[in-house]
Fold:
Amino acid sequence: MYWSEEIETIGRKELEKLQLRRLRTSLRRAASSRFYRELFQNAAIKPEEIRSLKDLTRLPFTTKADLRHSYPGGMLAVDPEKVVRIHASSGTTGQSTVVYHTAHDLDGWTDLVTRCLVMAGCTPRDIFQNMMSYGLFTGGLGLHYGAERLGMMVIPVGGGNTDRQIQFFRDFGTTVIHITPSYALHLNDVIKDMGLSHRDFKLRLLIFGAEPYSEATRAKIVEAYRVDTYNCYGLSEMNGPGVAFECGASDGMHVWEDNYIVEVIDPESGESLPPGKIGEVVLTTLNREAMPLIRYRTRDLAFLYEDTSCPCGRNFRRLSRIVGRADDMLIVRGVNVFPSQVEQVLMKLPEVGTNYQLLLDRVENLDRMTVRVEISGRMFHGEVGELRALRKKIQHELKEQILLTTEVELMEPGALPPSRGKAKRVIDNREI
Ligand code: DLL
Structure:
């Protein structure tokens, strides 16, 4: 099923022609912002000199720091009167980054989200409960308008208030939810505590994104809810959700390349990497008026699939799941560790519950990593010997995976702060 069949099934050659045409327009638009005018001048390059898609690599990158420095209006490329909405990134540190949208931009974004929902098999008969927060964060309004355009009944409940969410599942017969993976795990704990299960609901489809998660977590969620799951990737700088989305083949996320050019680069050298190689995702907007972004470094790590054909009929390149963030990488006693590696180990173990936290501190000048993990209710009432064995097992499996000896603290179910949106997994006390 397609929302815009003609464009979704476009051949690669046609697509590349369209991309080049749009790229040139995008560059021209970008050059009317103060930031890009200066950037192009400093790089001694004129937008008209970009005559092929390959030429794109001659242009400098744009970074999150650039967005911060040009706050609030340095990247605005249109007359402020044309702007109809702003969104901001959920980044927790420093100056926030703002993104401007014209009516055209919002219309284009909504269309991409609608494509995603149709690709996942949603129809106007579905009842859609949007459990991501509304406001400056894009997970709320972004999915909201796409779902409405498709004609689903939308319940704009937002994040949190878990009891009411469950009540709504029952009262309105919710069939599709949009939720962060960490909140889906927490929600399931509450569902179980209420003595309920997937049989009490009509859920059939779960869309998640906004934070990294492992395949093991997905398996846990599928087991609990018995639903089809779809991974949705995006970031506020690129509109928000709906930059890339899985099709029914569940094998990578199609990047909507008529709207974005995707590159994967070596985060150290900035060189382009071939398909299959993990690196930093770099995106260029092709259809945005208010704030075009050129070669934006996302800091997200993933790889592109080699093959551009897919059983679903779309030829848009596929991006792997996000394996981590360039800036999330922890260096513990000189070893590079991604929180996602720890999660992959923990979520595979049936004795482990749904929540965990990584705590880093420095003891006598040595890094120490403590993994605090909630165990399942059944284990909690078990024997002390059993718990000791479990702790050893977790330590051993972690050592195999990340090559580090870690402290493991087993916590009772519900002891760690639950996630109702993006989870905060790492507490690094080492700088303090
Ligand atoms: O999180 C947009 C979004 C909302 C995407 C709802 C999907 C669903 P930001 O707050 O700007 O925007 O955060 C963007 O979140 O750079 C990734 O690091 C991470 N992220 C988003 N989607 C995924 C995903 C929204 N599917 C940042 N898997 C991005 C892993 C994701 N990480």
Notes: The chain has two domains: 1-326, 330-428. Residues 12-30 form the longest helix (19 residues).
